[in-house]
Structure formats: C-alpha cells, structure tokens
Target: DNA mismatch repair protein MutT
Amino acid sequence: MAGPSEPRIVYEGRYQRMVVRDGWEYSERTHAGGLAAIIVAVTPEDRVLFVEQFRVPLQARTIEMPAGLVGDVHAGESIEASAIRELEEETGWTADHAEVLLVGPTSSGASSERIAFVRATGLRRVGAGGGDASEDITVHEIPRTRAAAWLVEKMRQGYELDAKLWAGLWMIEHELDGTPRER
Model:
C-alpha cells in the first residue's frame, strides 16, 4: 500500500495556501501553527461579548465571538496572549486571565486550520474596540440570559452566524465535562 503523496501547492497568499494531496483540495493557514483563537468572554455586568463585521467570503455581515489568528502579529505569541490581544483590539475589553479550553479543527474536510476556544475572565474595559485599521467591527454586549434568543433574532434578520457561537455559549455555562460552571 502506497503512503500519502507529496502535497502540491496550487496557490499561496499571505495567510492561506491551497493544496492538493491524494485527491483532496484544501486550504492551509500559513501563519504560525495554523491556529486561531475564539474568545468566550462575559463582562462583569453578565453580558456576552459578540462582534459583528462584514465577511468578504460570505458577502454578508456575520455575528461571531471575538477571534483572531494566533501568532500573526507576534511570532511565538501564546494562545492566551493572542486571545487577550484580539479581545482588546476587537471589543475594547481586556482580561486578567485567559484559559485554553480545547483545540480542534474548524472544517477538517476543507482546511487544516485549528481553533482554540479560550475563556477570558477578569474583564475590564480599556478602549472602544472596533478592530484595527483594516476592520470595521461593531461590538455587541448582550445579557447572558438573553444571548441565545438574540442570536436567533440576528439569524432571522439575515446575519450569518458562526456555528461556533453555540459551543461558546455552552462553555459559558458548563465545564468541559458537562457539569454546570460556577459563576
């Protein structure tokens, strides 16, 4: 039985490359480790932080939890440091602590990208947020008890919702083993 073939790169850009290997076409992230972080963050006022922005691949506005590429700004930056940096940049909130909850693939049939769910705690406002100069991010602070209903409303209004939102909401309320999280 033959082993896997060598990958053939058919396109390479700043952050992604397209690869063909063993009949599969897929994308790879080209930055440090191909890892992104999604930040699960609840303010001291018990509000979940969401971001809204236009996403070119979907040609639509999306609702997401704050997120960003790990190591795209500072080589060797930890997942936790990247998450806090992205949280502050996108939302204007910073965190005293960031805890990696789990790491896994985002779309294992189409991309090698992995995502780390990071719980940010000890939040405090330090700025306006809105992203960097290339981003136009609207920050939403939604009461935790109303977050799921708000997301459904946004979906009905035509927004694209990142499916990871639902996992993030679950992680607000639960430990990874399923037990309720003390708040």
User: Anything to note?
Assistant: The chain has three helices and eleven strands. The chain has two domains: 1-30, 31-173.
